[in-house]
Amino acid sequence: MAAVLRDMHLAPATSAAAEFVVERSQRVVVAMPREVIARDSPGIATQGIERRLVSRGIEIVADRAAGDELAPRPKLSATREGHRAGARA
Fold first, then answer.
1. CA-CA distance, 48 to 50, in Å (whole number)?
2. Contact yes or no for 17/5 (Cβ under 8 A)
3. Separation between Cα atoms, residue 89 and residue 85, nearest integer Å
4. What is the per-residue pLDDT across 4-32, written as a single tens digit (0 to 9) for each?
5. Among 37, 49, 58, 72, which is least packed, fewest CB within 10 Å?
6. Among 69, 64, 34, CA closest to 10
7. pTM attached to this predicted model
8. Which residues of 40-79 are buried (b: 16+ CB within 10 A; e: fewer)?
9. 28 - beta bridge partners?
């Protein structure tokens, strides 16, 4: 089983949460849109964040929007779509 963290950018808080969770789970996946991976961090910091996470076994994957990110919808529909997106990760 994997813990999937969904974020819009790889900020220090996201990487800290991933490192916290990896100590308590078999697998951690940080999913975010490819075009925004670490865009709010300087290039050198981005490389350091990615290296640190990968060295701890944390995966960083690009994903697509799902659920209410695409359009507001009933809760069950959004949840089902989010579950499918997480299963693909």
1. 5
2. yes
3. 7
4. 888 877 778 888 888 999 988 778 988 87
5. 72
6. 34
7. 0.59
8. ebeeeebeebbeebeeeebebeebeebbeeeeeeeeeebe
9. 3, 58
